[in-house]
């Protein structure tokens, strides 16, 4: 294949990197969306924040060791229902997949699908969260 340069349209919210897009990562287990990881402030001076929500937009007491929760409430995304529906369709019957989305310009944008987030080595707090999340996996 001949070398090529590929470019994607910029989806940021402004020229200031402090205004990065919110990343919604829907965790789907055997075709059923269960939890949503929300990543905010990715390029800010203080670093990224991560918050876990259930599909009804209730904040969960789960976090990854390297990233703190936000101090303020994250509003429910406008396209939450569509995110959940599309994630389930894309996942099919795969035992686990994470389906990522962004909201920008009043529309939902697909990001990527990931089978092994953090190569499967990320640890969670509280420690029981590993057991809870692992219990959602059916092989």
Describe the structure.
The protein is an alpha+beta fold. Helix content is 14%, strand content 31%. It has helices at 80-91, 128-135; strands at residues 23-29, 32-40, 49-54, 63-64, 96-104, 107-114, 124-125. The strands form 2 sheets. Strands 3-2-1-5-6 form a 5-stranded antiparallel beta sheet. A two-stranded antiparallel sheet has the order 4-7. The radius of gyration is 16 Å and the shape is globular. The relative contact order is 0.20. The model has no long low-confidence stretch (mean pLDDT 90).
Number of strands: 7
Secondary-structure content class? alpha+beta
Total helical segments: 2
Low-confidence stretches: none
Backbone shape: globular
N/C terminus separation: 38 Å
User: How helix-rich are the residues, as a percent range?
Assistant: 10-25%
Report on the biggest sheet: 5 strands, antiparallel
What key attributes describe this structure?
single chain; 139 residues; alpha+beta; five-stranded antiparallel β-sheet; two-stranded antiparallel ribbon; 2 helices; 7 strands; globular
Per-chain topology:
Blueprint: E1 23-29, E2 32-40, E3 49-54, E4 63-64, H1 80-91, E5 96-104, E6 107-114, E7 124-125, H2 128-135
Antiparallel strand pairs: 1-2, 1-5, 2-3, 4-7, 5-6
């Amino acid at each position: 294949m001949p070398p090529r340069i590929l470019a994607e349209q910029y989806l940021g919210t402004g020229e200031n990197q402090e205004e990065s897009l919110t990343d919604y990562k829907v965790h789907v287990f055997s075709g059923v969306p269960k939890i949503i990881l929300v990543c905010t402030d990715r390029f800010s001076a203080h670093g990224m924040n991560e918050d876990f929500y259930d599909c009804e937009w209730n904040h969960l007491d789960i976090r990854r060791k390297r990233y703190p929760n936000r101090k303020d409430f994250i509003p429910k995304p406008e396209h939450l229902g569509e995110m959940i529906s599309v994630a389930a369709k894309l996942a099919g019957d795969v035992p686990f997949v994470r389906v990522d989305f962004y909201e920008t310009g009043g529309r939902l944008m697909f990001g990527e699908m990931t089978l092994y987030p953090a190569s499967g080595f990320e640890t969670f707090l509280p420690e029981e969260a590993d057991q809870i999340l692992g219990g959602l996996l059916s092989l």
